[in-house]
From TrEMBL:
A molecular function GO annotation: metal ion binding
GO CC, alphabetical: tripartite ATP-independent periplasmic transporter complex
Annotated residues for binding of Na(+): 220
Name this polypeptide is given: Family 7 extracellular solute-binding protein
Amino acid sequence: MSEKKSVTSRRGVLKGAAVATGAMAVPMVATAQTTTLRFQSTWPAKDIFHEYANDFAKKVNDMAGGKLKIEVLPAGAVVPAFQLLEAVAKGTLDGGHGVIAYHYGKNSALALWGSGPAFGMDPNMVLAWHYYGGGKDLVDEIYKSLNMDVQSFLYGPMPCQPLGWFKKPVAKVEDMKGLKFRTVGLAVDVFTAMGTAVNPLPGGEIVPALDRGLIDAAEFNNASSDRVLGFADVAKNCMLQSFHQSGEQFEILFNGAKYKGLNAELKAIIDYAVQAASADMSWKAIHRNSEDYIELKKAGVKFYKTPDPVLRAQLAAWDTTIAKKAGENPLFKKVLDSQKAFAARAGQWQNDYTVDFKMAYNHYFGRGAKKS
């Protein structure tokens, strides 16, 4: 048999085998299975905060290419807003979106990631401390002490929050005394020390309570949330600037077992989605909050700067509060010391290097600015 004929014969045998079995003729295609995670936010469906939760989920879903899908439900769909942590830890929910200060009742130290002046740090600096100054390890330590098997991601630096909505403008510290006031986290202790009667209501319950007179004044967060929740329908005075929650951010929670069960690729997608959503949220907040601030003015809302004596009274009340809490809770003191050490360094750099942007704004838009 010639070599040419031998090669032809071998090709014929292989071709026949492929036709006979069918398996080699058509390549097998593996079908990827989708892992679906059910999340709940702590926000009403119409709030921009719930939109932020969906923005994060969409980033994960888009990058995962069908391998992972996060579905987000609004507050109350499965559990009340303040029960999110337990629901995620127990596996009633696979994850959630909220703020860490909502877990203040479990350990007061958790409120230090949102309440108070953060030693002069803005919310983005608080996140810098969290990821590069030891904050993340401390959150993990606190959750472990509570037997909460969760994976926590902090993200999304919130703009400085207003003092809140009042039936009458606040002119002096004494105006705060005796008010039935809504806030959450360590701000509860701060305002209590200032003489208010605090009621820590979830976001969706604030405006109805204010409307019915169950509370006299309330704070929530920002122009966009406040507008859509209907604050302007029940109060016409909003006091801007406050230290009670000047450095807050959001928290994304995963059930510990569900998160650990994901492969390295999906965990990386989640990690980068958190970072992308953090940047996107901060940009969107500037855009939407500034638009809604104008709309609230058009609706007849009067905005006032919180008087400096009230701000100083907040700082004094904060000092009293943290001294008491640090004496009661070793983890509280541990978090506080870590935050303070980072703030002393980062704050000096921030304040020394940052130019006065208000000067430039007034140059172009303030009184006496040149008109083009």
